[in-house]
Structures are given as C-alpha cells and as structure tokens.
Amino acid sequence: MSDVVAPRRRGPSVAAWLLLPGAIWLALFFVVPFYSLVATSLFDPNGSVLSGYEVTWHFANFSDALRDHWRPLVRSLVYAGIATSFCLVLGYLLAYAIAFKAGRWKTLLLVMVIAPFFTSFLVRTLSWKLILADNGWVVDALQAVHVLGPEDRLLATPVAVIAGLTYNFLPFMVLPLYASLEKIDLRLIEAAQDLHANPFVAFFKVTWPLSLPGVAAGTMLTFIPAAGDYINAQLLGSPNERMIGNIIQNLFTTTGDYAAAGALSVILMALILVLIMTWVRKAGAEDLV
Amino acid sequence: MNPVSRVGRWIGDHLVLAGGLLVLVYLLVPNAIVVLMSFNDNSEARNVYAFQSFTLDNWLNPCKPSGLCSALGTSIQISLLATVVATIIGTMVAFALVRHRFTGRKAANVLIFLPMAAPEIVLGSSLLSLFVAVGLGGRLGFWTIFVAHVMFCLSFVVVTVKARLGGLSENLEQAAMDLYANEAQTFWKITFPLVFPGILGAALLSFSLSFDDFIITNLNAGQTVTFPMFVWGSAQRGVPMQVNVVGTLMFVIALAIVIVGEVQSRRRQNTLA
To answer: In total, how many domains does chain B have?
Structure first.
C-alpha cells in the first residue's frame, strides 16, 4: 500500500489504513480460499479426509467430474438461463411501471419489491410447495383449462424449479433495471414522439437502448445466483431436477469427494465468467464495476 | 394523433401498470402464505405442506419444536457480530475509495465487486477448501460461519456506503472548514451524520444477508445449526409451522424499520425545505 499517491486530502497513509482491514479480510477469506479451491480441484482423487490430500496436478479430476456430472451442470445453466429470461420480461415490466407510471407511489412500490427479502429465503421457497401443490388452486385451474392433464403435476417438475428460481431472483433484476430506467431523460422519449415515432418505435429506439446497462447488470445478478442455487431444485424439484449446486454440496459434505467437488466448482465459476463476459460485452456495459 | 400511437399510449398507460402490479403480486404471494401458515395447525398430517386448520398455537409456543429457538439464537448472534464487523471495515473501505485517490484504486473496486459476482456455492466451497487445508476441517462452527458472513457482507456494505458518499456534495464540508472546524470536527459533525443513513442501510442489508444465508453457511457450519439450516433440515421430515412465525416476525420488524426510516427522512426533508 506504499504506492499511494496524490491524496485529495489527508495523508496517503490514511487511505492505506482505511483499506487495510477490508483488504486483509478479502485477501484471507476470498482470494486465498479461491486459490485453495483450485488446489483442491487438483488433488489426488484417492485421498480422503482421514488420509489427507495431496495436490498432484491431477487434471483428470476435471474430465472425470464433467463425465460424471455434465447433466446437472448443463441443467443448471439452462434453468438459470430460462429463469433469467422470465425475470427480464417480468422485471422490465415492473421496473418500467414503477419508473414511469407509478407517480407518487414509487417509493411504496420499491419497498414492495424488496419486501420479499424481509422473510427467510427458505421459508418463502417452502410457500411455493403450497401454491403449486397437487390439489392446490393453481394446479386445479390449469387442469380446468386443460393446460395440465388430470394426472399432471407441477411440484417435482422443472416448471416448479424454474418458477421458484424466477421468483427468488426477480428483485435482483428489477432494482438495476429501475435504476437505469429512472435516469432516462423523459425529453428524449418525447422528442422521439415529436418526430412521429409511435410508442413502440420510441421504446425500441430510445428507452430500450438507454436501459441496457440495467439489463446487463440485472441479467448478471439474476443468472449467477440462479446457476449456483440448489435450494429451489431441492425443495421444489425431484432428483431429476438436481442442479450442480446439489452435486457440489453432496460431494463436499456427504461423499467427502473433495477433488471432484473442487473441480466442479472451478468449472462452474469458469463457465459463468465466460458467459458473463460474452454477454456484458454484447450488452455494452463494461463500465459496470 | 394516429390510431397506432393512440393504442400504443393506452397500452403504455394502463396495461403496463396493471402488468407491473401483477408481477408484484407474484413477488408478494409467498409472503402472504408465510403469514397464513403461521396460523396453521398441521397436527393432522405433519409432512403435508397445506393449510389444515386455524390455530394460535404456533404463536403462543414458538420454541416448541426442539432446536428452533437455539438455531434462531445462533443466527442472531452470528448476524449481529458479522454486521458490526462488516459495517465498520466496509465503511472504512468506502471512504478510502471515494475520498482518496491512489494507484490500485481500480483494482480495489474490482476486488470488492468479485465476491458479489461469484455464485455462493463457489464462495462456500472455496472457504471450505481453505479451512480443510489449514486443518480447521474438524473445527467448523460459529467462527468459520462468522468469517464467511463478514466476507460476503463486506462488498455489499462498501457498495451501499459508496453510493451514499458519492452522492454527497463536498460543499458542506468545505463550509465547515472555512468556518475553522478542524478535520476531526468536520468529519464527526458534518460528514458522518450525512453518511449515517447509508451506513445504517448497509448494516440492515448485511444483517438480512447474513441471517438469511444458507448455501455458504451450510458448507462451513460443521455441527452448528443456524435458522436457515434448521428449516432445511426439517424440510426433509416435515417443517414445523413455527418457522412461519419467525418468518412473519422478521417481515413485520423489517417493514417497520423501513417505514420508520422513510417517514423520518421525509420529515427531515420537509424541515429542510
């Protein structure tokens, strides 16, 4: 931290002292652990908690993990992708309504968007068990209009898991979208309309492009936790909907297969990074950080 | 006005608002169900998650299911402790990032951002790998959970306080200095009170993040049981309805804090105006 230069006020050492505890905490418990995870992923797979592990640069851990668990891995990315697109559509509608149509109810509606967070994630997810139950009114209604057959169910299907993911991560989409819609100068939209753009054209030529930073941030904040989540898959799905989080969790805590679990975590992180980088570049929001 | 844009405008004005409200309903129905289920008597069929009959029993005996209240106590202790530590060191980092220019500032911003961008399962398994590697594998518990919670709350504190600090004009501070306040006086009389709402918001956010965390906690908890872990464990055998009492109470308390905060900030704005 000695390379601190040109303070705006107070000495350079002040900045260093302010940063120090946080930097140490993140270094010790975020950076070093990540290194440790990569090391774990290269463990000799024959090691165990009792006999100890050795880093043997066993790259086959990665191919083994992929071979054994590619289905839940792909499933996680697909479910997260679908849930993120639903979040984008629903979240855009809600954020747009709050930013432009809510008038003086804005603050109240924003509080309602974060209100779900006031109750425990797990307890709320359990509520979906009741909403989607086999004899619940949602299933009954869908059966009445023949969307579902008389024997079909929602619980323990991909539909329930994706509905749960969409529900749980929707506020992470709405808030950044709202933040970027709020900033749009309404005169730009009026100008488009003065120039005879109908509202649809005005939306796609003016509002949508200006909201792209929010779209990029929102999709990221939704996709990442959704891809790593296993609570929805476990509580609302069946073993057929198991996601990569379930597998990693089980390998670490139940099976004790640290090498495979580490390799899967590293693969998940790498896949997410690649997807996000491509996406952020495409949406043109590199200055997100 | 041509018909297309008239239709468009009508859609804009009515359907969008109605659609947005429907999305809000989707977001809030589960909260309503948590409240409803806190009055549910499920003694007929314990592992069926459905409303069976009305009772006040869950509210009168919230600690009846064994382990619930001790898990709740553990969660509150960890969350309070993690919140205090994360809020203090996170606020310090935010001040350094907003009020000081130094090389490596950009790198520091990225480092702060990364924990928020990594999936929890990866953060959790990294920490577990480290704890096992340094021989703490058998001693996972309260303190390893605490360390993990401070780590992931920290970034959220920094971002929240930074937002508040960044939006603050330095004119008031300069005015104080012009009136011969020294740096410490200026900080404690002007800067800190102005940033305080942001710090408070950050603390509330960290408390709820910490209290609610399951994925990272579950990997690093050893034999310690937090409230979300209690819910998870009981989900396999049939959830006691008392967890909905806890959920409802949390909801009411958090809502009250937000409303009081909002009313106060409005009142302050009115007196300033």
So the answer is: 1
- A61 vs B13 pLDDT, higher one: A61
- Any CB–CB contact under 8 A between A122 and chain B? yes
Cα(A128)–Cα(A151) distance, rounded to whole angstroms? 19
- Does A33 contact B at CB distance below 8 Å? yes
Q: Alpha-carbon distance A86 to A173, whole Å?
A: 10
As a whole number of angstroms, the distance between CA B59 and CA B146 comes to 30
Instruction: Give the integer Cα–Cα distance in Å for A132 and B26.
Output: 13
Nearest CA in chain A to B138: A49
- Identify all chain B residues contacting A227, using CB atoms and an 8 Å cutoff: 119
Out of B12, B89, B127, whose CB is closest to A33? Answer: B127
Q: Indicate whether B226 belongs to any domain.
A: yes
How far apart are the CA of B100 and the nearest CA of chain A, in angstroms?
5
Cβ distance B215 to A244 less than 8 Å, yes or no, reads no
What pLDDT, in 10s, does the model give residues B71-93? 999 999 999 999 999 999 999 99
pLDDT of residue B78: 97
pLDDT at A51: 55
Which residue among A118, A131, A234 sits closest to B250, beta carbon to beta carbon? A118
In a domain, B38, yes or no: no
- Is the complex ipTM more than 0.90? no
For residue range B145-188, what is the model confidence (pLDDT) as tens digits? 999 999 999 999 999 999 888 888 788 888 888 898 888 888 88
Domain of B231, in residue numbers: 67-239
What is the crossing angle of helices A60-96 and A212-228, to 10°? 130
The answer to whether residue B128 is domain-embedded is yes
Across A3-12, A67-76, A130-139, A142-151, least confident range: A3-12
Q: Could you tell me the two tokens for A122?
A: 């797990």
Greatest distance between any 2 Cα atoms in chain B:
74
Q: Residue B138's pLDDT band (boundaries 50, 70, 90)?
A: confident
Distance CA(B160)–CA(B97), nearest Å, equals 12
- Specify whether the CB–CB gap between B128 and B138 falls below 8 A: no
Question: Fold for domain A62-288?
Answer: MetI-like fold (1.10.3720)
Q: What is the CATH number of the domain that holds B178?
A: 1.10.3720.10
Helices (H) then strands (E): counts for chain A: 14, 0
Instruction: Give the whole-number percent of chain B exceeding pLDDT 70.
Output: 97
Q: Is residue B262 part of a domain?
A: no
Domain layout of chain A by residue ranges: 62-288
Mutant choice from A4, A8, A26, A243 vs B, greatest count of B C-beta within 10 A: A26
